[in-house]
Design brief:
The complex is a heterodimer.
Chain A (H helix, E strand, L loop, with lengths): L1 H12 L1 H4 L4 E7 L4 H17 L4 E7 L4 H6 L7 E6 L4 E4 L5 H8 L6
Parallel strand pairs in A: 1-2
Antiparallel strand pairs in A: 1-3, 3-4
Chain B lengths: L2 H6 L9 E2 L6 H4 L4 E2 L3 E6 L5 H14 L5 E5 L4 H9 L5 H6 L3 E5 L7 E3 L6 H14 L3 E5 L3 H5 L3 H18 L2 E7 L18 E10 L2 E11 L8 E7 L2 E4 L15 E2 L4 H6 L5 E2 L3 E6 L5 H14 L4 E5 L4 H9 L6 H5 L3 E5 L7 H15 L3 E5 L10 H17 L3 E7 L19 E10 L2 E11 L9 E6 L2 E6 L1 E3 L2 E3 L1 H80 L5 H7 L1
Parallel strand pairs in B: 3-8, 3-9, 4-5, 4-7, 7-8, 15-19, 15-20, 16-17, 16-18, 18-19
Antiparallel strand pairs in B: 1-2, 9-10, 10-11, 11-12, 13-14, 20-21, 21-22, 22-23, 24-25
Helix pairs in contact in B: 13-14
Classes of the chains: A alpha+beta, B alpha/beta.
């Protein structure tokens, strides 16, 4: 597992290479619950700041599609799945901890 | 028990509605099953059977009670689960296709998940809610929900969500089982799940004592219902889980006054001429090699001869060994085995613990429904338990058998003749008939004596009989009470021989005397005839003299007449004289 983390980090270091990849993000939310609303706002902020024009965000309301929950192995919500680039990462919570979100997306730099 | 009840009288608040589990014995302990519409916690150590028990709850519900169920696995994958219960003959895939069961594997991998702030477990709720609604589930299992704690960090959120989850389950009206791993120290679960599930808690245990492991189950708490509080052993075998509610509550069982023959006519004769009571318990105890197994085999053969079923539990010898050995006393058990009247169940006592033996016996009896069972010997069980444990096991067994009206014969080995009258695993006070086969050592040889120590409710002989095993079979003979005391074996034979000799001698003497008498009689008779002859000759002699005298007289008279006539000269009278001559 640590190897994977390292590989994603090392990918993060090669920013040039990453820029060619479009970030594919899916955010699963539960209607308009407070957590969900916050998560959408926070994630949009982060994406606009760090991945401007280089991301593809899909927001899924699991109440509308309950079957997706089982298929995607979702337990905790809201949850963000980063499908690409690199390996799949899952982030849960309202995305208020920006540094953790960036780390999870592989965008965290040295400073 | 209360399901149909409840439907008829929904307002009845007296009894808590229950959901039967369908697991053998568990519903008896819980007096009908798990609390309906409420969560139940099953906790225990790793490998104690939590998953299997909860899965059986779901499968039995689907198969027997037509209640669909959701199994949410946090540990094992659905394929693994299906494989695990395939050995029990449950086809989970088929049940899933028929929409009777829904399996869902929840995977949580901490390394894949980053927590970035506030979250909830709404995903789990949606999943569970959808699964329940899709098949109309009445039963839910969450196995093991504590895994959430290893996958997610925020304890405060988890606990709040768990509380919400149980409320959600109650709201849904499903009967749920939550499994939990046993915690450190006295805690029932690692994460204190018992705080949330307060209606019914069942503890599973898997203990190893003297290298023998026994699974046990205990209902720690059951709100609003009476339940058995003891630890009950349970068994996992090819039919799933069987729990044994081992003690019945009272002594209210039916009794039979019918009699069954022991197969040994002489023994029946000792027991008031008719044998044992049907449904009674018989103990045959004795030292090694006194023929206990033979008595057991005789009884088994007799039962089968009456076209009744017999179940023979052998803890010492293998069935083939018993069959072979019994042929030497002219009992052939093989035909009965072939016709299905006789069934052997041989197991090493050390195979599993005492309780397990009891469960195994119980199960077999339920399956085979015998009229007679034989346990040979119960003393071997002591290798896996203490005397008191064996006793308590036998108490429960006898109890159960009497309820089922099954005649049981135990054999018990006593190690030496001095103590055997007091021990015998303490069952002697429980059994109805107690026979003791004992060595009588005398005259440099060992013989068997059979006593009936007691036999409740019937007239029985107080005599010691000699118990003989020959190649023709078993028999009892009266021991010989000679001038030197009780005689058995060759001493008895010798005494009998001596008596027979005496008889022969006496016969001979009598016949000699008879002959002598005859001889004497002939002798005397000869003498008598001699005397008679002598008498006759004397008589003749006497007669002759008398006759001669008379003749002389006549002649003299005639002569005188002649002379007279001649003197007178009368010639005409001569023809008269001629006539007289």
């Amino acid at each position: 597992m640590t190897e994977k983390d390292q590989s994603s980090l090392s990918e993060g270091n090669y920013l040039n290479k990453q820029e060619h990849h479009v970030y594919q993000l899916r955010l699963f939310v539960t209607g308009a619950s407070p957590n969900s609303s916050r998560a959408i706002t926070n994630l949009k902020d982060i994406c606009e700041t760090h991945l401007k024009g280089n991301y593809d965000l899909e927001i899924v309301d699991v109440y509308q599609q309950p079957l997706i929950v089982e298929r995607e192995q979702i337990i905790a919500l809201p949850m963000l799945i980063k499908k690409a680039p690199g390996i799949e990462r899952r982030l849960i919570g309202d995305m208020s901890n920006t540094s953790k979100v960036l780390k999870g997306l592989g965008l965290q730099t040295e400073n | 028990m209360t399901k149909s009840h409840k439907k008829q009288q929904p307002a009845n608040i007296k009894s808590l509605p229950k959901t039967p589990t369908g697991i053998t014995g568990l519903d008896e302990i819980t007096d009908g099953g798990l609390p309906q519409g409420r969560p139940t916690l099953i906790c225990g150590e790793a490998g104690s059977g939590k998953t299997l028990m909860s899965l059986e709850f779901i499968v039995r519900g689907a198969l027997v009670f037509n209640e669909p169920g959701v199994f949410m696995a946090f540990e094992e994958k659905t394929d693994e689960l299906a494989l695990n219960v395939a050995s029990l003959g449950f086809n989970l895939y088929e049940l899933q296709d028929e929409k009777k069961v829904k399996l869902d594997h929840v995977r949580i991998d901490r390394s894949e998940i980053e927590e970035t702030g506030e979250y909830d477990l709404e995903g789990l709720f949606i999943r569970l809610g959808h699964a329940i609604d899709s098949i109309g589930a009445k039963r839910v299992v969450l196995d093991t929900i504590e895994n959430l704690f290893s996958g997610l960090n925020d304890q405060a959120i988890l606990r709040a969500e768990l509380r919400r989850l149980f409320a959600f389950l109650k709201n849904k009206g499903v009967t749920a089982i939550i499994t939990g791993e046993k915690g450190e120290g006295g805690a029932l679960t690692r994460q204190g799940l018992e705080e949330y599930v307060s209606d019914c808690v069942i503890l599973l245990d898997h203990r190893v004592i003297n290298q023998i492991s026994t699974r046990r189950l205990r209902v720690v708490k059951y709100r609003g219902s009476q339940h058995g509080t003891n630890e009950y052993p349970f068994l996992i075998d090819q039919d799933g889980i069987s729990v044994l509610p081992v003690t019945s509550l009272g002594l209210e069982k039916a009794v039979s006054s019918k009699r069954v023959s022991s197969g040994i006519p002489a023994l029946d004769y000792m027991l008031g001429g008719q044998g044992f009571f049907e449904g009674s318990s018989i103990l045959v105890s004795g030292t090694a090699g006194t023929g206990k197994t033979s008595i057991g085999a005789y009884f088994a053969a007799e039962t089968c001869k009456q076209k009744k079923k017999c179940l023979y539990f052998a803890f010492e010898e293998s069935p083939n060994q018993i069959i072979r050995n019994m042929k030497s006393i002219s009992i052939d058990l093989q035909p009965y085995v072939n016709s299905g009247l006789l069934k052997f169940h041989a197991s090493r006592p050390t195979l599993y613990g005492l309780e397990m033996h009891l469960v195994a016996i119980y199960k077999l009896i339920k399956q085979f429904k015998p009229d007679t069972i034989i346990l040979d010997p119960i003393t071997n069980l002591i290798t896996v338990g203490s005397v008191s444990e064996v006793k308590s096991m036998l108490v429960r067994l006898i109890d159960f058998l009497q309820n089922e009206q099954i005649t049981v014969m135990f054999t018990a080995l006593s190690l030496n003749t001095v103590v055997n009258e007091q021990t015998d695993e303490g069952v002697s006070s429980l059994v109805d008939t107690w026979m003791l086969v004992r060595d009588i050592e005398h005259n440099g040889e060992r013989n068997r004596g059979l006593y009936i120590m007691k036999s409740r409710g019937m007239k029985h002989s107080n005599q010691v009989r000699e118990f003989i095993i020959t190649d023709k079979g078993l028999d009892l003979v009266d021991v010989y009470l000679g001038p030197e005391g009780v005689l058995t074996g060759s001493a008895r034979e010798a005494q009998q021989l001596k008596e027979r000799t005496g008889v022969a001698l006496r016969d001979f003497a009598v016949s000699r005397k008879d002959k002598e008498i005859t001889r004497k009689r002939t002798m005397l008779e000869a003498k008598i005839s001699n005397l008679q002859a002598e008498f006759e000759s004397v008589e003749e002699e006497l007669n002759r003299i008398y006759y001669e005298d008379e003749l002389k007289q006549q002649i003299m008279d005639k002569n005188r007449d002649e002379i007279t006539k001649m003197r007178r000269g009368i010639k005409e009278e001569s023809p008269i004289i001629k006539k007289q001559k």
